[in-house]
């Protein structure tokens, strides 16, 4: 559930198949504080309709009314990846890489289609099912995703402070490399249970990200292989063009060992489970901090800090009956 929506389990009458219905409230007039801009939700739908990959959530159907859009997506019942890992007694780097590899393959697929997710974080990395021999990763929530066009500069002030890249904070052009920074942060947390840039406040966290200063604290990385550290170091690079791509990550020696010696080192190294469980517990209770933003045109602008006045139609909506939902299904959807 989020500020403007909720997800419910639903069943398709004709087949009996279970799906997840994502109900999103949309603005009924420009400038309203109630709901998301309809164009933002429509962009998410347009992107989801282009995607067909085992590690990315699938859109099945779409219904909409004047004040609401309902995205019918495949049901993902395994919960968050980090919750699943926190329940384990121990996890080797080799086992962690099996999950990370799936994430990288999903991101590689996106980037090959010039689509950037721009909100990669633990909450958006799910498991399709939990109680199976090899759980499958699913990347969800494409609300901030963008189709990047050649010759068009895209800037944004969106995201969760500890996972966003320096170029987001500096309001500089974004690219697929912005996602790779987030994967670097996620990997750092996965191995150590520490967040590389987390400060006492969001402002301090953002300052740490811009500085790009982090270290591998010995008491948290004592069980971590040097290859794993090198993998992170090639992602947490301030200059976007110097970061590894998803494709390069998949052939990095830590992910794809070049020798038996490298494979052995990886299998003997493990993640810091004690710290990881502590981090995951704090994460679950922490109120999400999202930068205020307003969508518009080819870029995103800061939302005004002054309160916005509700428009008349929004006030009418609160006491009115919901409008009937109309099906908006693409012929390419099945």
From TrEMBL:
InterPro entries: Kinase-like_dom_sf, Prot_kinase_dom, Ser/Thr_kinase_AS
Protein kinase domain: residues covered: 1-255
Species assigned in the record: Oceanites oceanicus
Sample GO molecular function, one term: ATP binding
Identification of the protein by name: DAPK2 kinase
Highest taxon above the source species: Eukaryota
GO terms for cellular component: cytoplasm; nucleus
Keywords assigned: ATP-binding, Kinase, Nucleotide-binding, Serine/threonine-protein kinase, Transferase
Gene name of the record: Dapk2
This protein's record includes keyword Nucleotide-binding: yes
Transmembrane segments: none
Keyword Ligase attributed: no
Residues making up the signal peptide according to the UniProt record: none
Pfam families: Pkinase
Annotated GO biological process: intracellular signal transduction; positive regulation of apoptotic process
Region (Disordered): 300-334
């Amino acid at each position: 559930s989020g500020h403007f929506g909720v997800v419910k389990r639903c069943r398709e009458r004709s087949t009996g198949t279970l799906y997840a219905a994502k109900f999103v409230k949309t603005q009924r007039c420009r400038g309203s504080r109630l709901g998301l801009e309809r164009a933002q939700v429509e962009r998410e739908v347009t992107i989801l309709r282009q995607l067909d990959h085992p590690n990315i959530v699938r859109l099945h159907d779409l219904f909409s009314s004047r004040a609401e859009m309902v995205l019918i997506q495949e049901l993902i019942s395994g919960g968050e990846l980090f919750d699943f890992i926190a329940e384990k007694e121990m996890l080797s780097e080799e086992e962690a890489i099996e999950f990370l590899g799936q994430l990288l393959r999903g991101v590689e697929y996106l980037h090959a289609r010039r689509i950037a997710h721009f909100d990669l974080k633990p909450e958006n990395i799910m498991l399709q099912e939990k109680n199976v021999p090899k759980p499958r990763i699913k990347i969800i929530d494409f609300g901030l995703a963008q189709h990047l066009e050649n010759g068009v500069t895209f800037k944004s002030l969106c995201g969760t402070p500890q996972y966003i890249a320096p170029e987001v904070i500096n309001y500089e052009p974004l690219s697929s490399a912005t996602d790779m920074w987030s994967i670097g942060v996620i990997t750092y947390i996965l191995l150590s249970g520490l967040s590389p840039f987390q400060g006492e406040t969001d402002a301090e966290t953002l300052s740490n990200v811009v500085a790009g200063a982090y270290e591998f604290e010995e008491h948290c990385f004592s069980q971590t292989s040097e290859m794993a550290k090198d993998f992170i170091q090639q992602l947490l690079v301030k200059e976007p063009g110097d970061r590894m791509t998803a494709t390069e990550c998949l052939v990095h020696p830590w992910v794809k060992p070049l020798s038996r010696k490298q494979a052995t080192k990886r299998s003997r190294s493990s993640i810091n489970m004690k710290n990881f469980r502590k981090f995951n517990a704090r994460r679950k209770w922490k109120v999400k901090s999202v930068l205020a933003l307003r969508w518009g045109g080819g870029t995103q602008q800061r939302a005004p800090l002054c309160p916005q006045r509700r428009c008349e139609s929004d006030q009418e909506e609160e006491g009115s009956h919901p409008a009937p939902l109309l099906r908006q299904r693409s012929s390419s959807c099945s």
